[in-house]
Structures are given as C-alpha cells and as structure tokens.
C-alpha cells in the first residue's frame, strides 16, 4: 500500500503535529546526503484492551543507543517521545499500525562532519500489513543468497539501526526480487549467514533452534529476542550465538525469518532448494502461533511488553 492510498493525516515532527504533506526537510539536509540518521520500526496491535505498542521500551532503548556511535544527542526525552507516539496513534484513530521514529542530522553545514547541524526527530504511524505478504505466513517465502555481503562491525556499527546502512539491505533485497525471489539472505564477510535485509533468521535442526549471534554482524532484533524467549518457554534448546554456514541452510529442517515488519515468516526455498518438506514446519508454526497469540493478547503472557494506547 502506498502512502497516498492511506487515510493518515498527521506526523509528529520536531515537537509538533503537522499535516502529512507538510512533514518535509530541506534538500541539503545532512542525513539525506550522508545517511546520518537512526530509526526504529514498532508495531501497534489491536487487542481486546485497545491498541498496544509491542515492546516500545526496548525499541526506545535501541533508538537512543543507536545515536551513540554518531555523537547524536536527541533533543527529546523518552517520555516526550512516548507521549507523542501515543497521541499520534490516538489522533489517527489507528487500531493496528506500524510506527516509524526517525532522528537525523538536519540542515546546516554540508561538510561530512555533522557537528554544526541540528538533530531533527519525527514519528509517523500508518496501517501496514504483513511485510512479506499475508500468504507468506502460512506458505513461506522463496529466498536467494545475495551476492552482496553484510558489512562488518569493524567497518560500521552493525547493532545501530542507522538509516545509511540500509542501502546494503536495499541492494540485497532488490537483487533477490529481480531474480524472482521474495527476499534475500545476506552472508557476512566470512561467508557465514548473517540475516535478511530487514529480518533476523532462524534455523531448526533435529528439534533444536539456531540463530546467528551478534558476532556475525547482525542487528540485535527485538522480535528475534521475543522468539528466543518464547521458544525457551516451550522447552526448546536455542543456540542464540550460532555460526551457520551457507551450506547448512540447504540441509535445515526448517528456516524462518523474524522481524517487526516480517513478524514470523517461514522460508520454504533457498536458491530453489526446498527446505524440509517445502512448507511451514511444525516448530515454525508453533512459534508463529505463540507469537501472534502473544501480540494479539489472546493470553496474559508478558503484559510488561505492552504499552497500551
């Protein structure tokens, strides 16, 4: 769905609620030229108790932590950003939506150094369905190993959710789609599995669960951490610092993506090689069901993870 097709009127920008079409920046904004921004992606779910932001505090933690490598000081407190987000969801009368906070070095000097530039902050929210498609939740997706490698943490901080870093994700994802796949898997500089362009990845083998650790240059995904906890609560052994070779993908019993946008999405083929029986596996299905039972509040588990609007 394109933004022009949505009935969303307002964005919070630098302390004020402004009309969607007026939420603009100068063409010489530092973040536009150098990717010097950080962002978050948060889902708000429709529950029996009203709209609820999922793991907002953890997302807010990462938002602030992502600014540190760039010496970026946010001009708003956690409480101010929280209240702005809740008010935005209320104003737009959104029940289920995706929320995008972003902070970036703004218009000032166009030298590479951002020290003379202001920090601008905005928050948008809009309805957004399943990132990889509703059918993908049950049928799974076909992916390819990208020829683009994930940048190493020695080159740029991989655990900061930096706007400019997603050029790497865009290249990998568009390469996959040009070749007829839904999504990509990106290897790190050593040739081991890192993640998807916007998702973490899990492998199931002999009833145990494996996912690459932070040493593999991945983003420390909040949905990833949620899935790990849900799996351990159900008695699964989870290896959350795994090193997974490219070849292990083809011989996995099950594979699936996790992410705020992708939620829990099975992978049925990698480079046209069928994974398991070529459909959503039982472990993936159990964890996917547990995830949606949780976020849609069909049970009372982990109520501390929800911020109710």
From TrEMBL:
Gene3D superfamilies: 3.30.470.10, D-amino Acid Aminotransferase, subunit A, domain 2. It holds the Pfam family Aminotran_4. Pathway: Amino-acid biosynthesis; L-valine biosynthesis; L-valine from pyruvate: step 4/4; Amino-acid biosynthesis; L-isoleucine biosynthesis; L-isoleucine from 2-oxobutanoate: step 4/4; Amino-acid biosynthesis; L-leucine biosynthesis; L-leucine from 3-methyl-2-oxobutanoate: step 4/4. GO terms for biological process: isoleucine biosynthetic process; L-leucine biosynthetic process; L-valine biosynthetic process. InterPro entries: Aminotrans_IV (IPR001544), Aminotransferase-like (IPR036038), B_amino_transI (IPR005785), BCAT-like_C (IPR043132), BCAT-like_N (IPR043131), BCAT_family (IPR033939), Class-IV_PLP-Dep_Aminotrnsfr (IPR050571). Keywords: Amino-acid biosynthesis, Aminotransferase, Branched-chain amino acid biosynthesis, Pyridoxal phosphate, Transferase. Its EC number is 2.6.1.42. Its cofactor is pyridoxal 5'-phosphate. It catalyses: L-leucine + 2-oxoglutarate = 4-methyl-2-oxopentanoate + L-glutamate; L-valine + 2-oxoglutarate = 3-methyl-2-oxobutanoate + L-glutamate; L-isoleucine + 2-oxoglutarate = (S)-3-methyl-2-oxopentanoate + L-glutamate. One of its GO terms (molecular function) is L-valine-2-oxoglutarate transaminase activity. NCBIfam families: ilvE_I, PRK06606.1. Acts on leucine, isoleucine and valine. This is Branched-chain-amino-acid aminotransferase.
């Amino acid at each position: 769905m394109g933004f022009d097709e949505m009935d969303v009127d307002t964005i919070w920008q630098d302390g004020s609620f402004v009309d969607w079409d007026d939420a603009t920046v100068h063409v010489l904004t530092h973040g536009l030229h150098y990717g010097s921004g950080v962002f978050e992606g948060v889902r708000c779910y429709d529950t029996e108790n009203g709209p609820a932001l999922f793991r907002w505090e953890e997302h807010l933690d990462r938002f602030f932590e992502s600014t540190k490598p760039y010496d970026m000081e946010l001009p708003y407190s956690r409480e101010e950003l929280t209240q702005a987000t809740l008010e935005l969801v209320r104003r737009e009368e959104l029940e289920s939506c995706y929320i995008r906070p972003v902070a970036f070095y703004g218009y000032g000097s166009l030298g590479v150094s951002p020290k003379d530039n202001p920090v601008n902050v905005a928050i948008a929210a809009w309805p957004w369905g399943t990132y990889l498609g509703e059918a993908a939740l049950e049928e799974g997706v076909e992916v390819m190993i990208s020829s683009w490698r994930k940048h190493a943490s020695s080159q740029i901080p991989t655990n900061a959710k930096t706007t400019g870093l997603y050029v790497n994700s865009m290249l990998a994802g568009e390469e996959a789609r040009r070749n007829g796949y839904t999504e990509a898997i990106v290897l790190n500089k050593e040739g081991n599995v890192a993640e998807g362009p916007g998702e973490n990845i899990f492998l199931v083998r002999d009833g145990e669960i494996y996912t690459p650790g932070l040493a593999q240059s991945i983003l420390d995904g909040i949905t990833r951490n949620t899935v790990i906890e849900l799996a351990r609560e159900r008695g699964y052994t989870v290896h959350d610092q795994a090193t997974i070779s490219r070849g292990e993908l083809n011989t996995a019993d099950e594979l699936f993506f996790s992410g705020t946008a992708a939620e829990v999405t099975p992978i049925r083929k990698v480079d046209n090689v069928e994974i398991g029986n070529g459909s959503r596996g039982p472990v993936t299905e159990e964890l996917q069901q547990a995830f949606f039972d949780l976020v849609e509040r069909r049970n009372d588990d982990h109520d501390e993870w929800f911020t109710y609007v």
